[in-house]
Amino acid sequence: MLVPGASGGKKHTLRVSFLLVEILTLLVFGAIVAIVCYVIYTSMTVSTLRDICAQQSAQINQMKEENDTLAQEAARLQAEKDQVSLTLSQKLSAEDARAEEEAQARVPVGVPVSGTASMTNTLDDPDNPAIPGEEGTETPATGNPIVVFRSEKGSLITATGNGTVESVAADTKFGGCIRIDHGNGYVSVYRNAGTSLVREGQAVQAGDVLFVVGEDNLTLGYQIQQDGSYIDVEDVIEING
């Protein structure tokens, strides 16, 4: 390569080695290739990242939709749970009320005679053959509490509470005896000379007829036992009027 001299108009000759030219050429080409590859790699990376971002954005949107669906389902299930809980609570309350009503119905609080009847609260001496409370009989000093009803012909002797007929037997003093077990420690005892209308083992409800009062069975001896002991009838029965 010739380059004009700086002075005197002389020419200088610069000799460049062919090997050096090849090396420089290769370096320049390598640099160009590297730049092209970097540009291509960068473009591919950017494209890949864009695809990844798009996929992630789609996944996020899908997850949001699924989350909204799950939230709606959870709200529906909670509403169903609340409804079931309310229904169960109402059912339990109704069952408790029925159980309480049934328990109350098993307490012998009723009056065992329909219609008009006289009532004498006295004691029954098991060793005295006379019916307590009748005219001409003295009130015994000892014995089991008893209420003696004297009713009119056509009156009904009825169960005073729900229960099961424990026994139907003869009674040396009154003629016959029906015992009803109420299943709660109470047993009601109906002593009358009439014909029993119930049988042993029969389930009865309060108000069911046990005897029909006629000319020969106007007197009823009524007693209540609690846990095996006779108690004052007037402490239990509810008398209206």
Could you walk me through the main structural features you see in this protein, from its secondary elements to its overall organization?
It is a single chain. The protein has 241 residues and is of the alpha+beta class. The chain has two domains: 17-105; 117-235, Glucose Permease (Domain IIA) (Distorted Sandwich). It contains one helix and twelve strands, in the order E-E-H-E-E-E-E-E-E-E-E-E-E. The strands form three sheets. Strands 3, 4, 6, 7, 8, 9, 11 and 12 form an eight-stranded antiparallel β-sheet that branches. It has a two-stranded antiparallel ribbon with strand order 1-2. Strands 5-10 form a two-stranded antiparallel ribbon. It is rod-shaped and about 165 Å long.
